[in-house]
C-alpha cells in the first residue's frame, strides 16, 4: 500500500500567515526606516542601527558591531528575495557600510564607529562567522560574484590566521584568554552551509565537514546528549560549573544545522540530532508555557529559567527539521503563538521583547537589532515547510 502524502494542518498555515503578516507589514517597515541609519535617498548609507530604544525611537550607542551589520544584511537580503520592496536598497547600503570593517590583511574588525571609522580592530570568530554567512546570502541577491568572492577570501584568511592544530579556530585574534567557545563555531557552520548552498561548489563544503567533525569528536557529549558551551584549549569541557552549562537554544540550533548539513551534503547524523532534540524537549521546555529556557546543567537542572526570544525561534527551526508536519504541527503552532503573543505584543509595532524574565516581564533597556536574524530565519524555515507540503484536504473531498 502506498502511504498517503503528508499534508499540513490548517493551524500551521494560519500560524505562517500571522507570522508573515507581522514580519512584512510591521517589522520590516520599522527596521527598514528607524532601524537603519541613512536618509530617504540612501536609507542604509551608514548601515543598520545597533538597537532601538524601548519606545521604538532610534538609539546611537556610539558603535556598530560587525555581527549586527552582518545579521541585518542577511535579514534584508532575505526580505528582498521574498519580494519586499525595500529589501534590496537596505541590503546594498549595509553591504557598502560593512566594507569599512575589512582589514588590510584580509580579516575583519569587530566594531566600527557610527560613521564607519574603526573602533576595535580585533578579529572575532563570532563576527567573522556572520560576515561569511551574510555575504553568502547576499551573493544570491547581488549576482555580480563580488560578495561570494569576499566570503571565500574571508574563509581563506580565517584558515590561515585563526585555525588551531587540534581543530576549530581561535575565538579572537589577538587572543584574549578565557574558555574556547562552541557558539561561534556553530555559527561558522551555518555560514559554511550558506556558502555551499549559494555556490554548489564542493570545495565550499570543506569547512562544513571540518566543523561537523569537531562537533562529533569534541563538542557533543554522547552520554548526556548535550552540547557543551565552554572548553579548554584541547577541547575538554571546562572544569567547574561553566563546563556543566548547556543552552537549550543552542541544542536546537545544532539540530537544525545537522539536518541542514544532511540535506545539502547527503551526510546525515540522525542519532546526534535526535539526542540533542530529546534533551531539549525533556529539560529545556517549560511544560506550562512551551517556552525554551535559557540555561541548564548537563543533568537537566534549571540554572536560568528565563526565555530569550532567539531560543524560541531556534526551537521552531528544530521542530520543523525533526518532525513530519502533520505530527509536529501542534508544537509549531504553539511556538509561533508564543512569539506573537508574548514577544511581539506589548511593545511598539514591529518590535519585540527580547529578554523577558521568569514572569515574562521585559528586562533590559533596548530592543536589539541582533534578534531580527533569528526571527527572519525562523520564519524562513516555516515558510519553506508551508511551501513544500500541501494543505490538508477539505472535509468531504
TrEMBL record:
Gene Ontology BP, a term: carbohydrate metabolic process
Any one GO molecular function term: isomerase activity
Family, per entry: Belongs to the N-acylglucosamine 2-epimerase family.
PANTHER family: N-ACYLGLUCOSAMINE-2-EPIMERASE (PTHR15108)
Keywords annotated in UniProt: Isomerase
Protein name: Mannose-6-phosphate isomerase
Organism lineage: Bacteria, Pseudomonadati, Pseudomonadota, Alphaproteobacteria, Acetobacterales
